[in-house]
Every structure is written in structure tokens, then in C-alpha cells.
Design goal:
The complex is a heterodimer of chains A (181) and B (503). Chain A has helices at 14-35, 39-59, 63-88, 103-123, 138-146, 150-171. Chain A has 181 residues and is an all-alpha fold. Chain A folds into two domains: 1-92, Four Helix Bundle (Hemerythrin (Met), subunit A) (Up-down Bundle), CATH 1.20.120.1200; 137-175. Chain A is globular. Chain B has helices spanning 3-28, 33-54, 74-98, 105-124, 128-146, 153-184, 189-196, 203-220, 228-235, 238-263, 268-291, 296-319, 329-355, 371-374, 376-390, 396-409, 414-443, 462-483, 486-499; strands spanning 63-65, 70-72. Chain B has a two-stranded antiparallel sheet. In chain B, helix 12 packs antiparallel against helix 17 (414-443). The longest helix of chain B has 32 residues, at 153-184. Chain B is globular and about 70 Å long. Chain B starts with a helix and ends with a helix. The chains are: A mainly alpha (181), B mainly alpha (503). The interface between A and B is large, with 31 and 41 residues.
């Protein structure tokens, strides 16, 4: 059986259908992360969010980025976030979210901004619009990363080192402080 | 990588080298704060020497490295030297505050130096990707430094506010960069400038410009994007406040020079209006709120917001220049002002920090009553820094204000001329709250039973020696930039010429 060139009935390209599906999952999961009451559930929805984003990367012809996204974000970072939540969660915390007082204003601002984006993206004359997705080969990526973009690449290393040192300092228990964990 | 690349990167590598050296020494010999102080201070002086020796200020040549993603020109070197001065004075002042509170100095030095390396990356970036990375490397250690006094609630609260709003604004800025990339198809600053030259402003780029402006305004704490500033500045340990009010601010202006002036300079007619409004709001609101403050740290926080407004006047003066061959006096004003501001603001915060050397002493204005009789030298220095912040000749602050205001007066745009008038009015109003502190120091009697500050044992205590060296450095800078600004002016003119090529 062969797959038809476009989506039956709708007449869209398959890529568009896949993108719409992934974007829908991504946005829905993101909303659930923000709106959920249970922070552990939020963490789990975030994993779905990361997974859908990996799909978008793959669709855009960046399989290496997609794989890295799955390995690093879905695999490592989500687990780390869940661990951090479970280790630090306090039962005495407020059940309702603290920042909900300005929800209406925020909602109106978001809707206005969204409308603005729709107009801009639809009307915008994007000179760099690509006719079709081109695949990025891994060796090309490596060449760029270690030649033209070696400075940002190394810079990220320094950034991570600074973040680790800062994080360890802030999280470290002082010798004089009693054990609370 | 060639030797030319290495020369261009030398200041960056030097500052990272010092940071890692301090880290390694602290790992091998933990708890030796004196060693960390010595390595940090000597190291940053070496970094300054390396910057001076390899920089673009020497022969005016532009060294470009890594396929044109990093470039050292006269502007880079000038800004790098300002960052070195900021780091040096902060490192000199900090031990006397951190020591009595039991805060470790090695971590402080390392984090500060990482932040400075980020500032170097911003100053030398010729690529928007490098620029954003530099921004992150600058602000991330800043969040941590704001919360450095982690047992104190105010410090943690300020750090959280700074962190949340700071990361949000970084995301906004990055979103703006993405729009610029989408419209021009390149991240190289020179290529972005070439792609935008002469073209009309499409809706996509307008959106990007709006996001970039909002993100940058957050970083320089311009009104109405300033809400994090007073809390972050008041909550942080005072030497950290001294750094936060100068380092990230000057670096954010470096970012504005690279993004708005260098890459988006061709379409400056599109963003001058936003800058004029931001400058007017920032000066006026910063000064008005500062008038009502009784805590000196909070007052200086609002004053630093007002100074952001004065620097923005210089940016508006440049942006209002007609297309073609613009006058660069606005840019020269920005660069000179950043150097003057660094010295006088660091100095003022250093005195606040010195008076707080005993844990528990607040920075309320009552602490300063009768200071002239208790600590005469500190009182005179504080008066010098405050007069410079007012803009009274012959101090650095006077020349800075005069430079940006004159640039704005000469503009052909009536809105910018009006902005210059507003800046003068603001400077006059600001004199009130600065001079109120001077009145407290010189004319009020100290209340009974106020403990001595104890800044006298300069030769007995190494920490005090460092503190006084830092105060002296800030004082000398403030006076020299006011009395004999010619060498700095020459550097500034060269730096501005590097930012906007003539013709």
C-alpha cells in the first residue's frame, strides 16, 4: 500500500499535518504545566512538552538536535526536575498558586499579544522563507560547531561551569546550620 | 585557531584563567580567604594589563577572530577596561563586608570574574549568538551574587526577583534576536547591518525591534522595566550592589551599542522615538522616587535608574542623527558617562559598604549623621561621590552629564532638544536628595551611643587596607575624569569611531 502524496480529504502536505499535531500537543502540555495544581503532574506534562518539541526538531530536518533533545531534556533534565521537586517539596506550602491574582490582566495581555503575532507572522514579508526543509547532516554541524561557532560552543561550557559553582554555593549547607533535609 | 585569534581573545582567556586559578587554589587550600583576595586582586590587575597591551585601543586596528564572530576594536578595549575597573574596586571593597559576615571570598571572586568574562564577550561580540551567550554569562553569576548572603531573607528575596525578571527579559531579548535573524537570515552583526541598510521596516522586524527594546530596557533598568531594581539592590550584600549597579548596567549598554547602534543603526529613525520616551520616563521617575527614600541603598538604586536615563539621552542624541554620516558625540557621551558612572557609583556604594562593616548596621540615612566627626575621610569621600552624582564641576559626573546633554542640545530633532532640557531639570531636582545626605554627614550631630565605625586601623587590618585602596581608586577616578579627562576623551572618540564607521 502506498501513502498518498497529500493528506486525504484535507489536501494538506503530511508535514503540515504532523506539525499541527505536534504543535497542538506541545501547547496543550505547556498549558497543563502552567495551570496544573499538582507540581509533580506539571513536571510530567513538561516531559511531554519536551518530547513534542523533539518531534518538531525532527520535522525541521535537524535529527541530531531532536535526538539530543530526547536524551538531554526528556531523559536527564526532566528526571532531575522531578527529583528536585520531590526532595524540596514542602507539604505546608499554599495549595493555591500564589501568582494568580493578576490572571485576568495577564490573559488579556496574552490575547492581545497573540493577535499581534498572528498578524505579524501572516503579513510579514519573510525574505528567508525556505521553499522546503533541508536536512542538516551531522558532519556539517560538527564542522560548523568546531570552526565558526567554536566560541559560542566554548562559551556555553564556561556558562555551565559558572552555573554549577553558583548552584552548589547556594544549595550547600553552611557548617553552622542545622540539618534540615 | 591562529595566533591572531588568541591575541583577540587574550583578555577573555586571562579573566577565565584567573577565575579557574582562584577556584583551584580554593579547592586545594580551602578556607584561605586571604589567598583568594590576593589572587583575585593581582589577577584582575594582570587582566587589565593584558587588555591594555593587546587591545584595539593601541593602534586602532580591529582584530577579528573565529570567522568574524568576535572582534576587538577600540570600543571593546575601552569597555573591557571599564569592566576591569569595576571588578577591581568591587574586589577591593568586598572583603571588609563579607569577612565579618562569614561569607566566603573565593566563591565571590570566582563568580564575579565569570560575570566579567561575560561582559567581555558582549563588548567584543560581532555575532548575535556570541552576544546573547555573553549576556547570559554576565547575568547568571549576578543572580547568584544577589543571593550571596543566603541566610538573610532580603538577600534571597532580591535574588529571586532579579532571577525571575532577569531570565524573563533574557527570553524576550532572545525572541527579538530570533525575529532579526528571521528577517535578515544572518547572525553576524555586520551582515545584519548590511541587510537592513535602506530597507523599509517590515512588520516582522518591527516586532523584533519591540522585543529587543523591551529586553534591553529590562537589563539597563529603564522605566517602566525597572521593578526588580530597588529590591535586588537593597537586598544584595552592599559590595554586590555596588557591582550590580555598575557592571551589568555598563555591559547592558555595551550590548545596546552592539545591537542597536552597530547592527540596527541603519534603521535608527525607527527606534529613536522609543528611546526618547524611555529616557524621559527613566530620568524623571527615578529621581522623583529617589527623593522619597530614607534608606541609602534604595535611594542609590533609584538614582542609578535616573542615571540610566541620562545615558539614554546620549543614545537618543545619536539615534536622532539623520541618515548618512551621523555625529558621534552622543555615543562618545554614552561611553564617557559609563566610565564616570562606574567610578562615582562604585565609590558611593563602597562608602555605604564600609559603614556597614559591623553586621547589623543598616544603610538608613540616620547612620550618616555626624559622619564628618566620626570618620572624616570617609565623609569627605562620600561627599565627593555624591557631588559627582549630582554633576557638580570639576568631577567626573559633571563631564559625563555635560557630554550627553550637549550632544542632545545640538540635535536637529526638537524632541531630543526637549529631552536635554528635561535632563537639566532632573539633574537640578536630583541635587536635593544627594545633598540631603551631605547635610546629614556634615551638619547633624550623631545620636548618643552610636558605636564607632572603626575604619582607622588601616595598617593593622589587611581588609581595611584593601577597602581604603578601593575607596581611593574610586575617588581618584572621579576626580581625574573631571579634572583631566583628555586621555579618556581620546579613547572615547576612537571607540565611538569604531562603532559607527564614518561615511
Amino acid at each position: 500500500m502506498t501513502i498518498p502524496a497529500t493528506v486525504p480529504v484535507l489536501g494538506w502536505a503530511w508535514d503540515d499535518l504532523l506539525f499541527l499535531g505536534l504543535a497542538g500537543i506541545l501547547l496543550g502540555a505547556a498549558l497543563l504545566v502552567v495551570l496544573g495544581r499538582d507540581i509533580i503532574h506539571s513536571g510530567l506534562w513538561m516531559m511531554l512538552c519536551f518530547g513534542a518539541l523533539a518531534g518538531v526538531y525532527a520535522l525541521l530536518g535537524a535529527p541530531l538536535v531532536a535526538v539530543a533533545q530526547v536524551l538531554v531534556y526528556v531523559g536527564a533534565i526532566s528526571v532531575l526536575v522531578l527529583f528536585a521537586i520531590m526532595l524540596t517539596q514542602s507539604k505546608a506550602g499554599p495549595l493555591r498558586l500564589v501568582f494568580h491574582r493578576q490572571a485576568w490582566v495577564a490573559a488579556i495581555a496574552s490575547i492581545v499579544l497573540f493577535a499581534l503575532f498572528v498578524v505579524v507572522v501572516a503579513e510579514g514579508d519573510w525574505p528567508q522563507r525556505a521553499a522546503e526543509v533541508t536536512r542538516t547532516a551531522t558532519d556539517q554541524l560538527a564542522r560548523l560547531l568546531f570552526n565558526d561557532y567554536v566560541l559560542p560552543f566554548e562559551g556555553v561550557g564556561v556558562l555551565l561551569l559558572a552555573a554549577v559553582i553558583g548552584g552548589v554555593y547556594l544549595a550547600k549547607r553552611d557548617p553552622g546550620q542545622g540539618g534540615s533535609l | 585557531m591562529t595566533s591572531a585569534d588568541l591575541t583577540a581573545l587574550a583578555p577573555l582567556l586571562a579573566v577565565l584563567g584567573v577565575a579557574i586559578l582562584v577556584l583551584a587554589v580554593d579547592f586545594v587550600l580551602p578556607g584561605r580567604d586571604d589567598l583568594a583576595v590576593a589572587l583575585g586582586v593581582v589577577g584582575i590587575v594582570v587582566v587589565g594589563a593584558v587588555t591594555w597591551a593587546t587591545g584595539g585601543g593601541v593602534d586602532g586596528a580591529i582584530q577579528s577572530a573565529f570567522g568574524g564572530s568576535y572582534a576587538v576594536d577600540a570600543a571593546t578595549t575601552f569597555l573591557d577596561l571599564v569592566f576591569v575597573v569595576i571588578a577591581l574596586i568591587t574586589l577591593l571593597v568586598a572583603p571588609d563586608y563579607l569577612g565579618p559576615r562569614g561569607l566566603p571570598f573565593a566563591e565571590f571572586t570566582v563568580t564575579l570574574l565569570f560575570a566579567i568574562s561575560g561582559a567581555f564577550l558582549i563588548a567584543g561580540s560581532a555575532d548575535l549568538l556570541v552576544l546573547f551567550l555573553g549576556l547570559e554569562l554576565l547575568v547568571l553569576p549576578g543572580y547568584m551574587l544577589a543571593g550571596f548572603h543566603k541566610r538573610e531573607g532580603l538577600s534571597t528575596e532580591g535574588a529571586i526577583k532579579y532571577f525571575l525578571l532577569g531570565s524573563f527579559s533574557s527570553a524576550i531579548f532572545l525572541f527579538g534576536l530570533a525575529f532579526v535573524w528571521g528577517f535578515t537570515g544572518t547572525t553576524r552583526i555586520a551582515e545584519v547591518a548590511a541587510a537592513l541598510a535602506g530597507g523599509p521596516l517590515g512588520p516582522g522586524l518591527a516586532m523584533g525591534l519591540a522585543f529587543l527594546t523591551a529586553g534591553a530596557a529590562f537589563k539597563i533598568a529603564a522605566v517602566p522595566f525597572h521593578y526588580w531594581t530597588p529590591d535586588a539592590y537593597q537586598g544584595s550584600p552592599t559590595p554586590v550592589t555596588a557591582y550590580l549597579s555598575t557592571g551589568p548596567k555598563v555591559a547592558a549598554f555595551a550590548l545596546i551599542l552592539r545591537v542597536f547602534v552597530e547592527s540596527l543603526g541603519g534603521i535608527r529613525a525607527e527606534w529613536v522615538g522609543a528611546i526618547v520616551v524611555l529616557a524621559a520616563l527613566t530620568m524623571t521617575l527615578g529621581n522623583l522616587v529617589a527623593l522619597t527614600q530614607s534608606n541609602l541603598k534604595r535611594m542609590l538604586a533609584y538614582s542609578s535608574i535616573a542615571h540610566t536615563g541620562y545615558i539614554l539621552v546620549g543614545l537618543a542624541a545619536f539615534a536622532a542623527e539623520p541618515a548618512g554620516d551621523p555625529s558621534r558625540s552622543g555615543l562618545e557621551g554614552i561611553l564617557f558617562y559609563t566610565a564616570a558612572y562606574a567610578f562615582m557609583n562604585l565609590g558611593a556604594f563602597a562608602v555605604v559598604s564600609a559603614l556597614q562593616r559591623r553586621p547589623g548596621v543598616t544603610s538608613e540615612i540616620g547612620t550618616y549623621a555626624g559622619l564628618i566627626r566620626r570618620e572624616p575621610v570617609a565623609a569627605v569621600l562620600m561627599a565627593l561621590f555624591l557631588l559627582s552624582l549630582v554633576g557638580i564641576p570639576p568631577t567626573a559626573g559633571f563631564f559625563g552629564k555635560a557630554y550627553v546633554i550637549l550632544a542632545a542640545v545640538q540635535s536637529t530633532d526638537p524632541a531630543v532638544v526637549a529631552l536635554a532640557v528635561l535632563a537639566v531639570l532632573n539633574a537640578a531636582a536630583a541635587a536635593f536628595y544627594y545633598l540631603r545626605v551631605v547635610v546629614f554627614m556634615f551638619m547633624r550631630e550623631a545620636p548618643e551611643g552610636m558605636p564607632p565605625v572603626g575604619l582607622g586601623g588601616i595598617l593593622r587590618e589587611r581588609r581595611l587596607f584593601l577597602l581604603w585602596t578601593g575607596l581611593a581608586a574610586a575617588g581618584v577616578g572621579t576626580v581625574v575624569l573631571g579634572l583631566y579627562p583628555v586621555p579618556i576623551l581620546e579613547m572615547v572618540v576612537k571607540a565611538a569611531a569604531a562603532l559607527v564607521a564614518p561615511g
